[in-house]
Amino acid sequence: MATILRFNDLECLNESASGSLGAGLAVFARADFPIVRGFVVTPIVFSDFLKKEEIAAALNLYNSGAEDPKESWRNVKAVFRRARIMWNHEMDILTAFRELDATASIVTTSKFGVSASPIYASAGQDLLDGIKHCWLKWLKGNLDKLEQQDMPAVLVREIFDSETSLELRKKNQAIIARAVFGLPEGLNDSSISGDIYEFKPDGELERIEQRQQSFQYIMKAQGPVKVELDEEFQNEEKASGDMLTSLLPLRIFMNDNPGIERCGICFVSSRPVVCSAVLVSQHEDIMELPQREFSLSLMEQKKIAQVSPAILHGPVVATKLFLNIEEPDDINLLADEYVEGLMISKNIELGEISQIVAEAKRRFKTSQAVIELKSEKSEDIADIMREIMGQEVQAGILIPGIRSSDELAKVINHLNLTLEGLSPKPKIWVRVMYPSNLFFMDTLASKADVLALDLDMLGRLMLGGGEDGHWLIFSFQALEKALGEALASCSGKGIAVLSEDLVAMPSLLEFLIRNGTQILCVQPRDIQTIRHIVASVEKRMLLEAGRN
Length: 548
Hints:
This protein is of the alpha/beta class. It is built from 18 helices and 22 strands. Helix 11 (350-364) packs parallel to helix 12 and helix 17 (506-514) crosses helix 18.
């Protein structure tokens, strides 16, 4: 395997050598589309680096558990910083970088996807350090399965000024597009609102959602910088008619190539340049069903119940947004604005919950708080409920995943005994996370006040999408069909949605709202974007109701 692959090299089409991002750019390069300049540092460079004596010794010490894990990992990072990449690999990398003569972004990519946050380099040593940093971030999460998993590649590409950046994603036979002013970094920044377009299978532009954009990313000497947008441009449409027209060859190419999941485009002088593309041709590697879940899978062919128009296009409910708090400091990630409720889970200690609820009521006018039930602390839950209700906030308890209605009944009976004498009784939320739960949603709904759909776990268990958010790409079609039938069976019951990736697929979010979802539990970073999407969906529903 070569040290360096350019995007127009034939071998770059191999996802094992160049990762899904490198292979995606190679597909567009081989089809003669204008693409960003750059190259791929292949996995052989990382593999050879790990064989260096000092690196192997540091990793063996960390794996042995002989020292404090934090101290041992600090030693690994120090050794990574000191160690040199093999000199012949280093020369190839620096030679390719000099050809770019530009500031570059560096990301890790494998055949399963791409890391979310890039590193920027404007000089040779910055680049070498950035590559090692990417390796180190990947290694931290994959050290325990190093022998079974392919090494990642590292993709290096130039950054150039862009008047508008746009992302295309497939959705059934249609293509969803998001556009922002400035560099593509704005597409991943939840504080920047992009316009949304939907192209139907026949190419017709079906919908445009135009949003105000107050900031954009521009290029500086050391990389992208976020700056305020001039007020006169904040309400302008991001992509002009000519820009949208110029996307036609790209959209046709995406439709003709099923492995291309999405691509990113920078407009330079109103002409599109492909700056990113994800190719996942080996879906079977990612979509393998866990054996024990196979019989419960909703992927088997089955007749979907007819959902009445009254449910699909029912009365608009002002969808409530709950702030999903996973760490105590999450409460400080959001500026003061109205938030209906809190969903408190994971790493929050019971002693901190009362302070968080009080702060949320003061800053966000929050009127509800739901606590995830943890079995080892269930004896303390009554005290926490009293403290929450003492602040005039409605309390709720989220019951973790259950596999049967009998199991749920036992948990609720235990809670009733624990909370005896407490008035008013806290609302009972039930996490719906196993595919089998969807077969008896009506029974769950009869025992609970709110059904909380854990889309991430449902998607992963149905199609094995992994832990990095890629479940959405491969399972949303099956999930929509399954949820459509399940939600119809419990019409009128409180429905909430839990997911870390609600922003990525606005059409799925619209489907959920139209099918009775009343509460969205949102990460602090996404709440403004979600609010924009929800407002657009509800506005369309009102217009449809008015026409009818």
